[in-house]
């Protein structure tokens, strides 16, 4: 197996582990997947957050206010150049609020986000997140059949 293939597989595994930590609401595990250096994140609709404290605080807020979240990653592309790796993907997100009074699951909401994740190779040869940028995908499927492309409806991005 080539070194490039091994790096791509290692970055894919690091990317998956980061999303797994978020799904589990495990802030300690999430923090372990980020570099200790200057990092940044852009959550959909949020300003740029820089520095480890701000980034981890943002994930703590997301985890504290999200009862359930699951990511189905599609269109995953990984490229590695030296000690830097770029992952682009579509986050197909299913999330839910608090449980109903009778104990049943709360309402679930789906969403699409295109994400760019930048990883750096660490001294021990592992890969950690350096920067994450997520942008919402705006789609209006009801109008898709009624309008010709470019007629002003919101179209899928990506």
Automatic annotation (TrEMBL):
<dbReference type="InterPro" id="IPR037401">
    <property type="entry name" value="SnoaL-like"/>
</dbReference>
<feature type="domain" description="SnoaL-like">
    <location>
        <begin position="11"/>
        <end position="137"/>
    </location>
</feature>
<protein>
    <submittedName>
        <fullName>Nuclear transport factor 2 family protein</fullName>
    </submittedName>
</protein>
<dbReference type="Pfam" id="PF13474">
    <property type="entry name" value="SnoaL_3"/>
</dbReference>
<dbReference type="InterPro" id="IPR032710">
    <property type="entry name" value="NTF2-like_dom_sf"/>
</dbReference>
């Amino acid at each position: 197996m080539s070194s490039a293939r091994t790096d791509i597989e290692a970055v894919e595994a690091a990317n998956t582990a980061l999303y797994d930590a978020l799904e589990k609401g495990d802030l300690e595990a999430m923090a372990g997947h980020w570099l200790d250096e200057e990092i940044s994140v852009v959550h959909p609709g949020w300003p740029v957050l820089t520095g480890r404290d701000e980034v981890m605080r943002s994930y703590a807020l997301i985890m504290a206010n999200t009862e359930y979240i699951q990511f189905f990653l599609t269109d995953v592309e990984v490229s590695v150049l030296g000690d830097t790796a770029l992952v682009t993907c579509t986050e197909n997100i299913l999330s839910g609020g608090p449980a109903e009074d009778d104990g049943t699951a709360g309402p679930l909401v789906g969403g699409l986000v295109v994400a760019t994740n930048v990883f750096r190779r660490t001294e021990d040869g592992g890969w950690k997140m350096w920067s994450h940028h997520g942008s919402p995908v705006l789609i209006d499927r009801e109008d898709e059949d009624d309008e010709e492309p470019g007629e002003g409806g919101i179209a899928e991005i990506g």
